Predict the 3D structure of the following.
Amino acid sequence: MEKHMAVCPYCGAGCKLNLLVDDGMVIGAEGIDGVTNEGELCLKGLSGFDFINDTKILTPRILHPMIRREKGGELERVTWDEALDFTAQRLTEIKEKYGPDAIMLTGSSRGPGNEANFVMQKFTRACIGTNNIDNCARTCHGPSVIGLMDTVGSGAMSVSIPNLENADLIMLFGYNPSASHPIVARRIVKAKEKGAKIIVVDPRSIETARIADLYIQIKNGCNLAFMNAFANVIVSENMHDKAFIDAHTSGFDAWWETIKNYTPESVAEVCGCDPDDIRKAARMYATAPNSVIGWGMGVTQQRQGVKVVHTIAAIACVANQIGRDNAGLAPVRGQNNVQGSCDMGMWPSLLPGYQKVENPEMRAKFEKAWGLPAGALPAEPGFKLTDLPHGVKEGKIRAFYNFGEDPLQTEPDSADMKETLENLDLLISQDIFMTQTTALADVVFPGTSWGEHDGVFSASDRTFQRFTAAVPPKGECKHDWQIFQELSTRMGYPMHYEDTEEIWNEVRELCPNFYGATYEKMAGTGHAQWPVPTLECPGTPTLYKNGQFNTADKKAILMAHDFVEPTELPDDAYPLVLCTVREVGHYSCRSMTGNCKVLSMLADEPGYVHINPADAEARNIRDEDLVWVSSRRGKVITRACLDERINKGAVYMTYQWWIGKCNDLTMHVTDPLSGTPEDKYSACEVHSIDDQVWAERHMQALYSALKDRLAAEAAPQNVAPAAEASAE
Amino acid sequence: MGSKFVIADPGLCIGCQTCMAGCLLKHSAPGDVAKPRLNLITTLTISAPIVCHHCADAPCVASCPEGALYFDEGRVAVKQERCIGCRSCVLACPYGAVDVVSQEGAAKLGGLTVESAPKAFLVKCDLCYDREGGPACVEACPTGGLMVVDEEELAARQRARRMKAAVASGAFASVPLNMDLN
């Protein structure tokens, strides 16, 4: 049996593991002593490996390139040469006819790694000539990236995951680490064991609420009101650090002009909590020696996501709970390499290394390095991923290159997204599985899977770590960066990388903060936490030490905003709040975990809608019943879980179920500052189903039909191309 | 007796089900029944997987008319071939830790394999008696929230509590004690 070192491909915790390989099959995983996981793994790390082996539990792997010669025609397996020529020609035609900005691309924050993403954005900017490149951070922690860059300068955690356990106080705000990052939740348990105080502020009584010193149950959608009042208490009770504010921040007076209006009493009704609890929490936070605020999608997938991040950053600054090893900001990233996608410039306004496309000096640097004439790189920020639906409707976006994402599953309002994808002139999908999105593609490129390639991932706390291939590529799968470079070469901008290290060294040369993160430094369980500007630098676990922020004048910018209610409030027709969340056993669109035996045995379709027992009783719904959930966008069947941890008046669904699909219900309304959908708040109703036997059969029939359809879409790959077969 | 069992600390449990995945990985081998032997239960204040206690006077053993459950060196073990699927053990177990499932199995007729017929399987914790390193769930738990409690552990806990009680008894000594000795 062989062992191959890797980094878990699921959440952003960055857990190091060995893949166990026997006879060319991945047969197991074992934790190794990585900096964030210390040998531990959660259930996904431990048992989420067998999708690599093409188990076909949910949907088959894609092993050969396929194209659809006519829109709406059948997929046909072709040679790589034909697939690449076809795609290069179609993209070139669209570029010539409508301009480079008619082409939109999305990077992959999942298994491919930083190098593949870097090459994709280079292809986007240098070859196609557009900044229309984005990644799934748009739908998750985009507001954290933007809100933190606006205020403290860097769109990332300021503290490291290991140091969480040394904080004196951890406040979780709209963040459920037990479900989204068990190995981070482990650090919170350890902090508690070491004597830290824990505050949980959440509409749901989440796992961590059980060990909290203070749990405040708030109403859904009240974040900015709550945080404004929290900030108000810190200043009203004189717990702010005036010397720190004077020396290291700007804008305090204007900030206070807004914040002063938000007394705890003034927000009590909106937040649904006792004003004294807000005071208590603020006192605990401000007076503890070292406090950390952790937040997740509960903050970012809201109408005012960026504004709440601004306020959280301001709170940490005025209370001087930032810039120390055990005090700071902890937006913990969802997908394993979503930090990396942002690091690599899979962002319409940022070149790799957070260098702004609008800055002519930066563009000149990249133009020189990439052998482009001066002025060749586009200066205007491109479209965001969430611009895709209206961009297509308005005819501005004609082609979409989807790299390892499944927007038809993960983006809000699936019916609208389906129409969007169908109305494209050209949809390219480069993936490892036949997903619902790939099933609509005109071009299907088979990339190698995690476990079949090398690279570097960025963990949520800015830690670069290497991962290696365990098994050779299957079928005709090519490394993602090879596909991009071959396409780019065909389109007139040649690229010829030999391996991922050559790509990574180019990244290092172009991004001063990443320069010291060499492959050598990251060998084995080695790691490098950015900024790591020199070869000697071991990495930087903590940002903003001594109040030195990454802004132009090194001062944090304090920003305050007024609270606005969520967009779609419950009413008589749709009286419940629908909030979409994560569950621990599955990941993202589920194409990976749904093809893992153990994980699919632990949780399978149609998933659950979690509902307070009182709300269920009022609707004559019993635990485990199949039910309908409906909204203004659609109606889905799922199973009810009567759960006393759920607040009355709200229900919770997870977004990875393909039948119990909550994104058939959510709406495409976004935070205007980030383009992030308001997935945490829309209105719905839950209906009982009288005939449960029928409902079970119906659900199973839907599930079988979907699996059969995807298998049928992938089937042409088993027929060798005619050109090849007839060749001598 | 030498009875042993796996127990969860609800303070350390984060409800992540890694124990269940570890159990499933262990028991998804051919010939075994791929069902987790422990089940995560959550209430407002508690999260913990519930699993067989290998009771010294096990009601499940007493309830089985066919002797499919028996004591084997301190654990409650199963003779799968004796299980008739009557579910008396499921009714008897106060922990809800025993399950009987139907598995499709090939029926034999005079040495000839005919169509598959359902076969009852008794599913419960076997303490991974055949696994090097002990129970897979204990090893898998990322917070160290699961432990094997054996006679030694019970005795150590008893000693610690008796010690604590003895120290506390100083408070009601009828003759003042020399606290300088501490």
